[in-house]
Amino acid sequence: LAQKYDPQKEAELRTWIESVTGKQIGPDFQKGLKDGVILCELMNKLQPNSVRKINRSAQNWHQLENLSNFIKAMASYGMNPVDLFEANDLFESGNLTQVQVSLLALAGMAKTKGLQSGVDIGVKYSEKQQRNFDEAKMKAGQCVIGLQMGTNKCASQSGMTAYGTRRHLYDPKNQILPPMDHSTISLQMGTNKCASQVGMTAPGTRRHIYDAKMGTEKCDNSSMSLQMGSNQGANQSGQVFGLGRQIYDPKYCPQGSQGEVANAAGDQSGDPPGYHYYCEEESY
Question: Which letter does DSSP use for residue 219 in this model?
Fold first, then answer.
């Protein structure tokens, strides 16, 4: 807040206050206005009898009372509440920037009210310009459509059917007959021209997909789709379901001598024919 304080504005305010009141503030701006005497005399110049009692005592509470009366007089003069300052802002140098803003706003309000001074300071407040229209003029304005809402110039309702009636859209170029009833399909929904249901079965009937080249005939509901592949060329000959399969190499299973004995023993055990036990010959 201290950095926002403008020394140039302080010099302008000093000149303005001294020119209006005829009093000297002194070298220190804050100390010259701290007691509130000069400020109260300023308000009495701007608005006579706005501050009825001015305390010239050196006691603190008398000086604070002067500042409070000055602030109340500024509010009654027409100042905005946001432009006012508090007594401690000036008395204790708490916020001299706000004090400067308030005094500038007071100078602008005085200029707005027509005060003539040798110092041009403050911004003049905007004046309210009220318009009074008679009742006939107000009613005529209710029929005017604002430009923000667009315009209905060049618009036409020719060809429009009654409100609530369904409108059928069709294009004679596509050889679509004019609508005869409410079942007409709009062009926005596409067209079913050149479409055919030839070969279609009844809705809900299962359709079997088969390929005549693969020999798959359309016999029953067990036909397999081509997406499931084909079992053509597959053979299950030699497959024994549920029985163990012994895999051996005849090179390592010699026939004869001890192997025949082993095979004979194997035949007695109930093993399937053609299975040979392998037994190495011991070398002595």
Answer: -
Residue in the block written with tokens 């023993």: 265
Structure tokens at 80: 């905005």
DSSP 66-118: HHHHHHHHHHHHT--GGG---HHHHHS-S-HHHHHHHHHHHHHHHHHTT---S
- pLDDT score for 103: 93
- pLDDT tens across 182-202, in order? 555 555 666 667 777 777 777
Claim: this prediction has a pTM higher than 0.85: no
Q: CA 89 to CA 75: how far, in whole Å? A: 17
CA 53 – CA 70 distance, rounded (Å): 10
Alpha carbon of residue 7 to chain centroid? 47
DSSP 174: G
Which residues touch 170 (CB under 8 Å, ≥6 apart)? 176, 177, 178, 179, 184, 186, 187
pLDDT at 171: 59
- Specify the 3-state DSSP secondary structure of 197: coil
Among candidates 43, 164, 159, which has minimal Cα distance to 106? 43
Please name the fold of domain 7-113: Actin-binding Protein, T-fimbrin; domain 1 (1.10.418)
Question: Tokens representing 54?
Answer: 């001015």
Q: Is residue 149 a contact partner of residue 143, using CB atoms and an 8 Å limit? A: no
Tokens representing 190?
A: 């596409």
Q: Which of 112, 86, 81, 82 is nearest to 99 (CA)?
A: 86
Contact 70, 51 (CB under 8 A): yes
Domain boundaries, the chain: 7-113
Q: Residue 263 CB: number of other CB atoms within 10 A?
A: 20
Question: pLDDT per residue over 33-83, tens digit each?
Answer: 999 999 999 999 999 989 988 998 888 899 999 999 999 999 999 888 998
